[in-house]
Structure formats: C-alpha cells, structure tokens
Design goal:
heterodimer, A: 306 residues, MetI-like fold, 72% helix, B: 273 residues, mainly alpha, D-Maltodextrin-Binding Protein, domain 2, 11 helices
C-alpha cells in the first residue's frame, strides 16, 4: 500500500522532533562508545595522535593485579549489598503492603528519602561517622566494650563494609518502592481465592506474590547488576578521593572498584587507551556472564514447563 | 624537649635521634603523638622524584629506601604515629589542638597553617631541618609557554616576572611562604626577619640554608604515577607490618606495571632532543 502524502509529511515531522535527541545521542552516546573501542587498541595520553598498539593494553590489563582486585571488590560489594537490598526491600514492601501498617505513603516517603540525598554529601558524613579516632560509630562501639575499628586503614578490609552500608542505606528505599508498587498491582481477589483454598500467609507469598512479581524482580535485578558494576561515587568519596595518599581505593586499595580503576587510569594517569581496554574487558566479562545466565535460566524455564 | 629550634636541631642529627626523642614526647593515652603518620619519612625522600635514574630505570631498590622504611616501621610499631591521613578533617583538627608534635612538610605548609589550617596557633610552631638528608623537595609550581601560544614574548615576560624576579619572588614568599627557586632572592633582608607565627624564629633563613645544601634529584614525567604505586605499597607495608625486602620488590614491580608503556615513550622523547 502506498503511503499517502499526508502520512509521509507526518513521518518527516516526527523525525524532526526526534532529531535533536538522535543527534545528541549519536554524539555523546554512540560516538564515545565506539571511539573508546578504537582507543583500547592504542596508546594515547590525550595529546597528539593515538598510536596503534594492538592488544598491548588488554595484555597489560591481565598483568595488572589491581584489575583483579578491583573486580573482586566490585563483585564483593555488589553481592553483599544486593543480598540485603533485594530480599530486604522485598520484605519491607511486603510488610508495608499488609493491613497492619497505616500511613503507607508516609513510610514510603521516608524509605525513599535517602535516594534524594546527594551521594557526595552523605559520603562525607559517613567518612566522619566512621572516623577511627573521633567517629560516632567507634564511640558507640566503645560504649559496648568493643575496641575502635580501623574502618579505613589497617588491611583495608573494613572499607568494603562501609561502602556496602552506604549503598544499602541509599538504595533499599528505591527497590522497596518498586516492589511495593508491584504488590499493590496484584488483584486482592487472588489472595482471597488462595485463602479460601486453604493457603496460609507463607503459601500466598510463595505461590501468589512472588510468581506475579517475577517481571519486576527481574527488572530490579538487571538494574542493580548494571548499577553495581558502576559503583563510583561512594567508593571515591569514602576513600578520600585520592587526597593525601594520592591513590584511589584506600588502604591496600580495599575500596577500589572497577569504575574507580578506570577513572584513575584514564584521568589520573592519563592512559586513555589503557582505561578503554579495562572498560571493554569488563564488558566482555559481563557479556560472557550474561550469555551463561540466560542459557541457565532458559534451560530451567524449559524443564519447568516440561 | 627543648623548645628552642636550634638546640632541638642539634639533638636530632639522625633519624635514630628523632625516634629516641620522640619516645619521651609521645603520649597516646593523652592523645598526643610524635608524628602524624610514619609514612611521612619515606615519602619525603620520594615525593615525585628519584623513582627513576636518567636512563628511566627504576631506582627505588637501594640502601636509602631500606633505611627509611625501617625507620618508618619502627615509628609505627612503637605507636609513635597517629596513623592519621594528611589533608583530612581529622588531621586538621589534630594539628589545631596540638596533638601532633611533628610533621614533615615543605615551606609552603607554613603559609597553609597561617591562613587556613591553624591560624589560631600563632607562636606554637617552630621548624628544624629533617636529619640525614635535609635537602628534599615536595611540590613546586612550574610555568611553561606552549608552542600554541599566540603571544610567546609576552608570555615569557610574565614567566620571567613571576619566576625570575627577586622582588616578585620575595613578595610571594612574604605573603604565602612559597619558597623561591631563584637563588639570588635568598640574599634579601627578608630572610633574616623573625616570623611571629613561628615564635620569632628566623625560619626563612633556615629554608635558605637547607636549599643551599647538596643533594641531586632526578625528576621525570612519570614521577606522579610512580609515586602512586610507591604509596600503595608503602601504606601496605606499614599497615600490615610487612618485611622490607618484599616491600621494596613490590614497589619496583608496581612501578614497573604502571609505567611500562610510558617509559619507552619518555626514552624516545629524551633521545630525540
């Protein structure tokens, strides 16, 4: 069927409306991503022309112990934080959804408040809270008879718990609100049917609520995976932004996340080629992990249906 | 401990003297420490200098490094350092409250103390040169005229004014304690004036005397990257009480990993001159 003149005129106008976004997206979204791939095969310090070095940057990434430390730190923080955030947020949303809690909107607003705070401001507060000598946390621990903890020094192993605490404090409200909205969308009749059939609260949760919430759970899982891989603000501020000591990640680089490593390599060392290689290496890892998990999930799905 | 800086300097002729004296002053129970962080001792020997030799070989594996690491380890293990990180609120507070007896820094730190870190502690500070190798460098500001400059003559005149004019240099020194690299500037009467912030000590003459002593440095474009790698291993060494040989090796390996690609380029650039 041939398109009428009016319709193609309307198409042109539609594209015109989209044009600003497309131009901006191509220049600031697609172009940097592709240029970064090109840079990852070069040696470039920001000035002059990039020099082609084949896979040298990728080899240097594998040879750098800091890369594996950063991967470990990022995975550790992500797993620990999300064990608390996802099931925890779900549980809080579930409780909020029951009839025992009144003023649901107020509770939602309170839970969501950390989300609207500035990460940088809160991180600075947390740095003071967890200060070794004069921090509130060590003061309270002292009251309980526990000796002061070197949160940011020593072997650097306590830096990750602080980052996790900050991250959980900030993001649990977000997931909670999303789960709550999802639960509100479940038809009450389904619960009544289940109760009539003899199900108790635990059965309802397991056989009604969770299955119906599956798409939302998947959504929060994917978002949190992407966000977790990119943790920067909290780690940067909590480890002093590289002040004093000059390097990022704190003592023994215990708080060095992948994003921090890329930032340090690119903007502190000026090695843009190397930083791009680290970023693409990470992408490779994520792609491989995703392929495996999709295969695994779809197999389980198929066998469940069979 | 004598409060007259000249007498104190005579008492502290070596780092071992420094530790001995510190044992008498250090009082952690009353929240007073001899030094802010033991890392300051090795750091001042390697603050963006001396990581490489003139052929861009890594030059950290030597007797000096081993000595200063040992001194730092002793300070840390004997509880004489406050383990506080410089440039944090905790550090500023401790400086203000007189909880840190000594800190190693450059001349410019006087300006910082006077203006924004501890302006109410007038008369409570003094300076002495560090023992064994007093001539060190930490920081410094540099001006350069780029090839793309549209007005290189005027730019150079400005550089000359700011860096090669004794009067301008000494005005800066008087205002913010930035020590001039220009040797003729040190002859000025300013350097024999007492500084009230330092209890009337003629600190500027002390700096000029230190600057006139011997001590070669090697600086390269890769020093800041090498310094980061060095600092990471240094902090691990102190925080986890590691041994010196493996720490020195770790420092060399870390610097090597982070600067491998760049060293080749720097050598090429140096060769092309």
């Amino acid at each position: 069927m041939r398109r009428g003149r009016i319709q193609s005129g309307r198409s042109a106008v539609a594209y015109l409306y989209l044009a600003p976004f497309i131009v901006l997206f191509l220049s600031f979204g697609i172009f940097p991503i592709l240029y970064s791939l090109f840079l990852s095969f070069t040696y470039w310090k920001g000035l002059g022309a990039p020099i082609f070095v084949f896979l040298d940057n990728y080899i240097a990434t594998i040879r750098d112990p800091a890369f594996f430390k950063a991967l470990y730190n990022t995975a550790y923080i992500w797993i620990c934080a999300h064990i608390l955030i996802l099931p925890g947020g779900f549980l809080i949303a579930y409780v909020l959804n029951t009839e025992y809690v009144r003023k649901k909107n107020l509770h939602q607003a309170l839970l969501f408040t950390p989300m609207v705070t500035s990460t940088i401001a809160v991180s600075i507060v947390f740095t003071t809270l967890f200060g070794e000598k004069y921090g509130m946390i060590n003061f309270l621990l002292g009251g309980l008879g526990v000796s002061p903890v070197a949160w940011f020094h020593g072997t650097g192993s306590m830096i990750k718990p602080v980052i996790i605490t900050l991250f959980v404090w900030k993001w649990i409200g977000w997931n909670c609100v999303i789960y709550f909205a999802g639960m509100q969308g479940i038809d009450r009749e389904l619960y009544e049917c289940a109760e009539v059939e003899g199900a108790n609260k635990r059965d309802i949760l397991r056989y009604v609520t969770v299955p119906l919430m599956r798409p939302i759970i998947l959504y929060t899982l994917i978002l949190s995976f992407i966000g977790g891989m990119q943790i920067f603000d909290e780690a940067y501020i909590l480890t002093g932004g590289g002040q004093g000591a000059g390097y990022l990640g704190g003592s023994n680089q215990g708080g060095l996340t992948i994003a921090l490593l890329i930032y340090e390599t690119g903007f502190r060392r000026g090695a843009f080629g190397q930083a791009s290689a680290i970023a693409y290496f990470l992408m490779l890892i994520i792609v491989v992990l995703s392929i495996f998990s999709f295969r695994f999930l779809s197999e389980r799905g198929e066998s469940a249906r069979a | 401990m004598p409060s007259d800086p000249a007498k104190l300097a005579k008492l502290i002729r070596t780092w071992d003297d420094y530790i001995q004296l510190g044992k008498k002053v250090n009082d952690p129970k009353n929240q007073v420490w001899w030094i802010d962080n033991a890392r300051a001792v090795p750091y001042i020997y390697y603050s963006h200098k001396n990581f490489f030799d003139r052929k861009m070989n890594i030059a950290v594996d030597n007797a000096t490094t081993r000595r200063v690491l040992a001194i730092a380890q002793k300070l840390r293990n004997d509880g004489m350092d406050a383990k506080t990180s410089a440039w944090t609120d905790e550090w500023y507070t401790m400086l203000n409250q007189g909880r840190i007896a000594t800190t190693i820094s450059g001349c410019w730190f006087g300006g910082f103390l006077k203006s924004w870190i501890a302006k109410d502690t007038v008369g409570k500070w003094g300076i002495i040169p560090i023992p064994e190798q007093p001539l060190q460098n930490w920081g410094g500001s540099f001006l350069a005229v780029t090839k793309q400059s549209a007005n290189p003559e005027a730019a150079w005149k400005f550089v000359e004014y700011l860096c090669a004019d004794a009067k301008a240099e000494n005005t800066i020194m008087k205002t913010v304690d930035y020590f001039p690299a220009l040797i003729p500037a040190w002859k000025d009467a300013l350097y024999d004036e007492p500084d009230p912030f330092f209890g009337g000590q003629k600190t500027r003459r002390v700096w000029a005397d230190v600057a006139s002593s011997q001590g070669p440095f090697v600086v390269t474009p890769l020093d800041s990257v090498a310094e980061n790698a060095f600092n990471i291993e240094l902090d691990k060494f102190l925080d986890q009480n590691l041994d010196i040989p493996s720490t020195v090796k770790a420092m060399v390996d870390a610097i090597d990993t982070k600067t491998k690609a760049d060293r080749k380029v720097v050598l090429q650039l140096m060769g092309n001159k």
